[in-house]
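Before surveying the methods themselves, we first show a specimen of the format, giving the amino acid sequence and backbone structure tokens:

:::
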Amino acid sequence: MAIAQPSLRVTISVLILLILSSSEARRTKRSASQTGARSSKLNLANYHVPLSNGSASLPPPDANLVVKSITLGRGTQNYTCAPGSTSPPVAVGAVAKLLDVAPLLPLFPSSNGQTLLNQIPAYLLSFDLSAMPDSTLPHLGTHYFDAAKVPTFDLGATGTLKGKKAASIAAPKDACKGANGAVDWLQLTEAEGSVGLKLGYRVYTAGGKAPPSCAGQKEHIEVQYAAQYWFFGDGP
């Protein structure tokens, strides 16, 4: 994928956070874990959830909702194949770490912070998931599918979103494709069991799509992906 020159600054910023000194990493993680509300102390109103892929758009959030957290998801989209099948793999869920971007935002210049933020998932995909050190951006929460196959986003003290897909659009044509392509952008509304969070978006996806056919594939397939996740709730 051809990447614009400003992305070099993203690479540097991400690497700084990934190789923080031990003392700084501990300070950052302690600060983020105290209340889970680091993002609320920043002016997140200066950041706006991306809704358009250039040719289609997701519905905007209701005016009464405010951004509660912006995270970077890094994990796998999971699929299954029946033995001997040549049909497309069947999606069965996803698992991802949700990393708090709040410590990263002050490093961005105010003039183009959003642009730089939007480029990070493509770079995050290149980091080995199993080898990501403890000194990365604070681990704010986890994305998984519960026993009822409901997509769940547990952000600790910030809240929990049990998501229901309300809208989807294809990732932009120039998205980082990873192995097979970038998964769709999504709008997720709250389902039963949500606490403190009303709405979520998955945008700027990188990777995650299944191979086109089960031919030659294992029964269980894990496809690496990264994405921005935005979470909204009622205003203060």
Q: What stands out?
A: The chain has a mean pLDDT of 83. Residues 22-35 form the longest helix (14 residues). Residues 25 and 135 are 5 Å apart (CA to CA). The chain has three helices and eight strands.
